[in-house]
Amino acid sequence: MASASRTVNLHPANYLPDTLETTTFDIIVIGSGPCGRQVASKTAASGLTTVIIEDELWGGDCPFWACMPSKAILRPGEALAAARMLGGAKELIATNRLVDVEGVFARRDKIVHNYDDQWVVNLSLGQKCTVVRGRGSLVGDKKVLVRNGNGQQKTLTATHAVVLSTGSEPIIPDIKGIETIDYWTPREATSAKSVPGHLIIVGGGVVGSEMATAFSTFGSKVTLICPNSEILPKFEPQAGKLVREALTAQGVDFHLSAKVVEVWKEDDGYTSVKLTTGKIVTGSDVLLAAGRKPRTRGIGLENVGLTPSLEVDPTMLVKPLEGMWLYAVGDTNMRSSTTHMGEYQGRVAANAIVARARGENVSDTKPWSSFNATADNLAVSQVVVTDPHLASVGLTLAEARKRGIDAKEVAVGFNFPGAWVFGEFNYEGWAQWVVNAEKNVLVGATFVGREAGDLLHPSTVALVGEIPLDRLIHAVPSFPTRSEVYGLLLEKWLAMKGK
Ligand SMILES: Cc1cc2nc3c(=O)[nH]c(=O)nc-3n(C[C@H](O)[C@H](O)[C@H](O)COP(=O)(O)OP(=O)(O)OC[C@H]3O[C@@H](n4cnc5c(N)ncnc54)[C@H](O)[C@@H]3O)c2cc1C
Ligand SMILES: NC(=O)c1ccc[n+]([C@@H]2O[C@H](COP(=O)([O-])OP(=O)(O)OC[C@H]3O[C@@H](n4cnc5c(N)ncnc54)[C@H](O)[C@@H]3O)[C@@H](O)[C@H]2O)c1
């Protein structure tokens, strides 16, 4: 069995509620994750006094438990695989396809600063924010109680706004016997100290697919169980299929259209799971990766007449609530659970808070204004760090058509010189645009290919800027680079239009 416990360094002696010199701030932010800190840094920079409350590691999930450690453990396997495509490099790499796991974990520990959060605290202090460790909860309009484990507590008052940025927590599926096993959540996977013999992953979304990629390069046998007919169901079906085929080639077993109905512990310490298909799979460890829900329990929403599922307007103001003082950003509002989109919401919320504090009315702003998180609806971008990467922005073809858009699909492969230099004529990939044919602009894009995540951003820019595709032909990709795929997409689209 792999061990899951971690030591974290919280510096608990510092920044306690009793050390606060005042209890009144212009802005109170609950949660020091990337999204809360984004708001706080901007409100503080504009001269509004801002306090951040945090009851775990300062910095939230992204730097310690989520984005950074997951990408840290994925990158070595990916780099090795990329080098193995190249004659002249592959001969120098051991034929064993596994990474050096101890080295990978040591690098991960460095990247997460050994679970010591002082560097992020220093960032917040440098941004002129007041820092306080404890659990925050709403106790009335603009009133937040901060309480720590030692019984210290203070009630803080906001003169302008309270921002909820409390993040999300894993959904634990309702499976018979689940309470009898010692399962992993994503935290135990990204902070693993040893390698499971056989990891069973429940859920075929982003976490499930990324962790299947990582642990198979560590030498674990991996079985992934997904209730949908294809993995990564939020993306283009062809993209999920390509990632699954690559993982299958790497030795991962898939059970699609299957749910776990029961789990139990075997006498030898292994865990068995029974599927809706009747099959039983036995492994050393189980990772639950079945999605996330807002971390809103126990934060006092009932004290201001709200329920745990928060709805926000385009400025991130919580609806329906009088007084325009409560905002929710990042995973808390579950609009799109990524760091970059949550930080974007944080920027929009900060703009609105600062403007409202000056007495401006910013509630009826147009899409794409600095007070309106329009991209949440039209331009969500994401790179799934599987091997190959799955990078996407905007709408899928099906979503676009559902919205009544005259959407056309343009899809090409990666058979061109810029891709050949990354392998030996064997760089495999798929690029797809979803075009609004009537307006001649992009509404969606997907790229699948090894290390292809960075190909996405030009499409995001074209989509947000609504650049006419005829104009884009003047943006000439350099030769020989993988960006040549843009030329192929454009030529295909112009041919489809008969130009
Ligand atoms: C395994 C994994 C990998 C991921 N990889 C990526 C990736 O590569 N790229 C990407 O963009 N996204 C990734 N994500 C998603 C990303 O981690 C989240 O979207 C992001 O962390 C959300 O930031 P946040 O500020 O909303 O919340 P969080 O980062 O969760 O921060 C919320 C903070 O609030 C604190 N808090 C909660 N309640 C209270 C309270 N009552 N009082 C005081 N403090 C409180 C918590 O302790 C926490 O520190 C990944 C997620 C997972 C699970
Ligand atoms: N690279 C990145 O940007 C990155 C990486 C990891 C996570 N994240 C974010 O973190 C969030 C959480 O990721 P996630 O993979 O947990 O969620 P997800 O929503 O991406 O996928 C959840 C998966 O679990 C399945 N599922 C749901 N109920 C189930 C059940 N009862 N049994 C088995 N499977 C079930 C779903 O069908 C889906 O395939 C995502 O929103 C994602 O955007 C981002």
UniProtKB/TrEMBL annotation:
<dbReference type="InterPro" id="IPR036188">
    <property type="entry name" value="FAD/NAD-bd_sf"/>
</dbReference>
<dbReference type="InterPro" id="IPR004099">
    <property type="entry name" value="Pyr_nucl-diS_OxRdtase_dimer"/>
</dbReference>
<dbReference type="Pfam" id="PF02852">
    <property type="entry name" value="Pyr_redox_dim"/>
</dbReference>
<protein>
    <recommendedName>
        <fullName>Dihydrolipoamide dehydrogenase</fullName>
    </recommendedName>
</protein>
<feature type="binding site">
    <location>
        <position position="136"/>
    </location>
    <ligand>
        <name>FAD</name>
    </ligand>
</feature>
<feature type="binding site">
    <location>
        <position position="291"/>
    </location>
    <ligand>
        <name>NAD(+)</name>
    </ligand>
</feature>
<dbReference type="InterPro" id="IPR001100">
    <property type="entry name" value="Pyr_nuc-diS_OxRdtase"/>
</dbReference>
<comment type="similarity">
    <text>Belongs to the class-I pyridine nucleotide-disulfide oxidoreductase family.</text>
</comment>
<dbReference type="GO" id="GO:0050660">
    <property type="term" value="F:flavin adenine dinucleotide binding"/>
</dbReference>
<feature type="domain" description="FAD/NAD(P)-binding">
    <location>
        <begin position="25"/>
        <end position="346"/>
    </location>
</feature>
<feature type="domain" description="Pyridine nucleotide-disulphide oxidoreductase dimerisation">
    <location>
        <begin position="380"/>
        <end position="486"/>
    </location>
</feature>
<feature type="disulfide bond" description="Redox-active">
    <location>
        <begin position="62"/>
        <end position="67"/>
    </location>
</feature>
<dbReference type="Pfam" id="PF07992">
    <property type="entry name" value="Pyr_redox_2"/>
</dbReference>
<keyword id="KW-0520">NAD</keyword>
<dbReference type="GO" id="GO:0006103">
    <property type="term" value="P:2-oxoglutarate metabolic process"/>
</dbReference>
<feature type="binding site">
    <location>
        <begin position="166"/>
        <end position="168"/>
    </location>
    <ligand>
        <name>FAD</name>
    </ligand>
</feature>
<feature type="binding site">
    <location>
        <position position="331"/>
    </location>
    <ligand>
        <name>FAD</name>
    </ligand>
</feature>
<keyword id="KW-0274">FAD</keyword>
<dbReference type="InterPro" id="IPR016156">
    <property type="entry name" value="FAD/NAD-linked_Rdtase_dimer_sf"/>
</dbReference>
<dbReference type="InterPro" id="IPR050151">
    <property type="entry name" value="Class-I_Pyr_Nuc-Dis_Oxidored"/>
</dbReference>
<dbReference type="InterPro" id="IPR023753">
    <property type="entry name" value="FAD/NAD-binding_dom"/>
</dbReference>
<keyword id="KW-0285">Flavoprotein</keyword>
<feature type="binding site">
    <location>
        <position position="71"/>
    </location>
    <ligand>
        <name>FAD</name>
    </ligand>
</feature>
<keyword id="KW-0547">Nucleotide-binding</keyword>
<feature type="binding site">
    <location>
        <begin position="203"/>
        <end position="210"/>
    </location>
    <ligand>
        <name>NAD(+)</name>
    </ligand>
</feature>
<dbReference type="GO" id="GO:0004148">
    <property type="term" value="F:dihydrolipoyl dehydrogenase (NADH) activity"/>
</dbReference>
